[in-house]
Design a protein that fits this description.
heterodimer, A: mainly alpha, 2 domains, 5 helices, flat, B: 503 residues, mainly alpha, 75% helix
Chain lengths: 151, 503
């Protein structure tokens, strides 16, 4: 009997839980276990980590049992666009100033959308830059660095 | 008469000009974001949470309660006008609400939703006032074992009510618990899973998890669906007021739904979804002519909306008296309270009565504001609904980033939010729900702490959880819940109840 993956969702999530659980379980080796009455920092994560691994295995095995429709392929464009925009914001906000972070974030996340329109997105990043400046710098006076050459 | 005294205290706090203003801003912003299609209340609250950080605790929590109500009401508006439920509890509202809208009766549908919610909210507020103090008395007798068992019960109910696979939901809870304990261990001072990163040794920011998994996750999923905006029912929102006949028909359902909602709301883990669904099924069964349901029956809007709000209101009872969140939204509230330096629990009521009663009164005020402010403003919300998704979502992403950044003025939180967006997207794709993870995340440190204390008292003997009556009772309840859900017959029923409402 050849093993066939019948449920891709279960296969992958089972694998994910096994890996993440083991990562926490193995990571906990560095911390002292203590005893049941005086638990060390390693006690709780060790139990939880390996419990996750066991349940991950249960899910993984289920994947070979019941047939289920495959999940749709990951939508890489919105995923990378939006999360790229977020990361660009994180990178630029302290180094390149708030305005460049706003523009990068808005443009990248807009590119992630199904119908990206350059002109529209340029306008909205301009509008949002002014809005953000008005709210956070002018009105709330938060210590944001606006441009790379500010302070 | 203590009740009157307490409520008077609450209303003096909530009705001060400053707090009224914060409540209003909260309601307003909550509705603005909540009404945008494809952004649910959890995402809305996560997004707006950071603006309350710079406020003192009382106004911050009042504003947050306003945001909460605004977001839920905004969700109903979207459900009725666009047939796009922002959260699972407004799915039921969609069925008849959208149909009413198509018949040109969107106005009365929106009005009855607000009126029903308001009525249920009034009863809910009273109930918190009546049952809060005695419950807090009981909670004061709780020791570490009781707390641990109660959180265990809370997590089990969250798992039982999650969609789909039970095992996956348990795994998500475990992941949440594990992620929750990242950072410095309070007992030993050891920095766990921080890998020398200073941002991690303070623990993973609650906002990053919520924003990443709910905010970014939802936005990416919406973009993936790539659906054209559905038809918006804007034609006939002009006449707003329900007719006398509408009111007469809705009165009964609203009363019954309030009872249903309050009961489900108090139970730990019970969702607003279950209450609105139960109310809908009940009204449909009770109706003289059940065939009207699904074709714009006003009872089908009035009941579920009232039930949903009653449950939302009473779910504050376990939160405020025991410090136990009953779902993802309540987990957000706990996160917000913790950030304000308030440990949720029975001591809040005695140590900060102004805060406790002020927050309860402001819930009522927030509800009232929704009726008197949002109904006239419906025209404006309709305009919001017309904005195409592609225009507003980059702005939402941006404000999420600024929000996450402003928690600690550090880009680390923003990077973390991006990472959780990634994790949230894939776990959702593989049918693992983010809700239980968030609950586990909030409870993680608390559970570990109470487990340690309980085991220290009992000298390492786990029997302590079974010899103390309250703790035993909760564990029995948890075991019963699990058995009930594992039994095949009932399991099928649950799937029906949840899926029917989710599809």
């Amino acid at each position: 009997m050849a093993l066939k993956i019948r449920n891709v969702q279960d296969f992958r999530s089972g694998l994910m839980f096994m890996i993440l659980g083991a990562a926490f379980g193995l990571g906990a080796l560095k911390y002292s276990m203590g005893s049941a009455s005086r638990m060390g920092p390693g006690y709780f994560p060790t139990i939880l980590g390996w419990l996750t691994v066991i349940l991950g295995i249960v899910i993984f095995i289920e994947a070979f049992k019941i047939e289920k429709d495959r999940p749709t392929a990951p939508a890489w464009r919105p995923l990378l666009g939006v999360l790229g925009g977020v990361s660009a914001f994180a990178y630029l906000v302290d180094t390149g100033g708030l305005i460049s972070a706003v523009i990068a974030c808005v443009m990248l996340s807009a590119i992630g959308g199904p119908d990206f329109r350059l002109k529209e997105s340029l306008i909205s990043s301009a509008v949002l830059s002014v809005t953000v400046w008005a709210i956070f710098d002018l009105a709330l006076g938060l210590p944001f660095r606006l441009f790379p050459w500010s302070y | 008469m203590e009740l009157v005294h307490n409520l008077v205290l609450g209303f003096t706090v909530a009705l001060s000009l400053q707090n009224l203003m914060y409540c209003f801003i909260g309601c307003f912003l909550g509705t603005v974001i909540g009404v945008l299609p494809g952004i649910g209340p959890v995402a809305t609250i996560a997004m707006l949470l950071p603006i309350t950080f710079n406020l003192p605790p009382v106004p911050a929590l009042i504003m947050l309660a306003g945001i909460y109500y605004g977001a839920s009401y905004g969700g109903s508006t979207t459900a009725i006008l666009v047939n796009l439920p922002g959260e699972s509890s407004s799915v039921v509202t969609c069925i008849d609400g959208y149909q009413m809208g198509r018949q040109g009766r969107a106005g009365p549908a929106l009005a009855i939703a607000a009126i029903g919610s308001f009525f249920a909210g009034c009863i809910g507020t009273l109930l918190i006032g009546v049952f809060g103090p005695p419950l807090a008395e009981i909670a004061f007798k709780f020791g570490a074992p009781e707390y641990f068992s109660m959180m265990f019960l809370g997590l089990i109910s969250a798992v039982v009510l999650a969609h789909g696979s039970l095992v996956k939901a348990v795994c998500m809870v475990l992941m949440g618990l594990l992620l929750g304990i990242v950072g410095t261990d309070v007992n030993s001072g050891v920095s766990r899973y921080a890998f020398g990163v200073s941002a991690l040794s303070d623990g993973i920011g609650f906002v990053s998890v919520a924003m990443g998994m709910f905010g970014f996750g939802e936005i990416i999923a919406n973009l993936e669906e790539n659906e054209e905006m559905r038809e918006v029912n804007t034609s006939n929102v002009s006449h707003l007021f329900p007719t006398w006949a509408d009111l007469k028909m809705s009165w009964g359902p609203i009363m019954r739904a309030t009872v249903i909602g309050t009961i489900f709301g108090i139970l730990p883990g019970a969702h607003t979804v279950i209450s609105s669904f139960t109310s809908y099924t009940y009204e449909k069964k009770m109706a003289d002519d059940p065939s009207r349901f699904g074709h714009g029956a006003i009872e089908g809007v009035a009941g579920p909306e009232a039930a949903n709000n009653a449950a939302a209101q009473t779910s504050f009872i376990p939160l405020l008296t025991l410090g136990i969140p009953t779902g993802a939204t309540m987990a957000l509230m706990i996160g917000a309270m913790t950030i304000q330096g308030i440990a949720p629990g029975p001591q809040v009521m005695t140590q900060r009565p102004d805060l406790f009663w002020g927050m309860i009164a402001s819930m009522w005020v927030g509800n009232f504001m929704l009726v008197i402010l949002n109904l006239p403003l419906i025209g404006m919300w309709v305009q919001f609904l017309k904005i195409p998704y592609r225009i507003f979502y980059p702005g939402i992403v941006l404000f999420c980033c600024i929000g996450a950044y402003s928690v600690n003025n550090s880009p680390a939180e923003v990077y973390l939010a991006a990472a959780f967006g990634f994790f949230g997207y894939f776990s959702d794709k593989w049918e693992c729900e983010p809700g239980p993870l968030l609950l586990g995340f909030v409870l993680g440190p608390l559970m570990e702490e109470n487990l340690r204390r309980a085991m220290l008292i009992s000298r390492g003997d786990p029997i302590v959880f079974f010899t103390r009556p309250i703790s035993l009772g909760m564990l029995i309840a948890a075991a019963m819940l699990l058995t009930v859900i594992v039994l095949p017959q009932l399991r099928k029923k649950k799937e029906e109840a949840i899926y029917e409402s989710a599809d």
